[in-house]
Amino acid sequence: MPLHITKIAFGSESPATLRAWLESQNPEARLTTRYLPKRVAEMAGGSLYWVHQHRLVGRSPLIGFQETGQGRYWIRLEPRLIPVRGTPKRAHQGWRYLDEKDAPPDLGSGEADDLDAMPAAMLGELTRLGLV
Predict the structure, then answer these.
(1) Rounded distance between C-alpha atoms, residue 23 and residue 128, angstroms
(2) Of 63, 76, 90, 127, which one is least surrounded by beta carbons within 10 A?
(3) Per-10-residue mean pLDDT, the chain, length 132
(4) What is the pLDDT of residue 51?
(5) What is the pTM of this model?
């Protein structure tokens, strides 16, 4: 079972803008991090799960990690966003590990998450209250 990581979709207005940014990156998307994860060997076959408005909204498969040459590392991702069942997730800085057993399932093609139909402001408030 691969290990995954989570990261806030900082600067992204919606999952659609996150998807557009990922798909504009070719042949891979890269994020910069200060430290190489200590559990990097367990991440083979894992994904980066994106947090938007306090919930996991999608994942991008990990290609690997690469040193930038400036004392930092790139998180290398496939340039696609695979939608997942919306799951509450508190905001955090940087990235955090996510075990396979805690990872939300992927949504099938054409399948929509029930929470997507809810207005963003209402969803944000219900999430803040811990109700969704």
Answers:
(1) 30
(2) 90
(3) 95 94 96 96 97 93 97 97 92 95 87 65 74 69
(4) 96
(5) 0.86
∠ CA 80-86-90, rounded to 5°: 100
| Inter-residue contact 50 to 9 (CB < 8 Å) | yes
Structure tokens at 94: 């940087």
Chain centroid to Cα 21, Å, comes to 13
Strand-strand pairing, 95-98 and 4-8:
antiparallel
pLDDT of residue 122: 78
Q: What is the greatest pairwise CA distance in the chain?
A: 45
CA distance 49 to 29: 14
Q: DSSP labels for the chain?
A: ---EEEEE-TT-SSHHHHHHHHHHSSS-EEEEESS--TTGGGGTT-EEEEEETTEEEEEEEEEEEEE-SSS-EEEEE-S--EEEEEEE----SSEEEE-GGGSPPBPPTT---GGGGS-HHHHHHHHHTT--
For 20, the token pair is: 């557009």
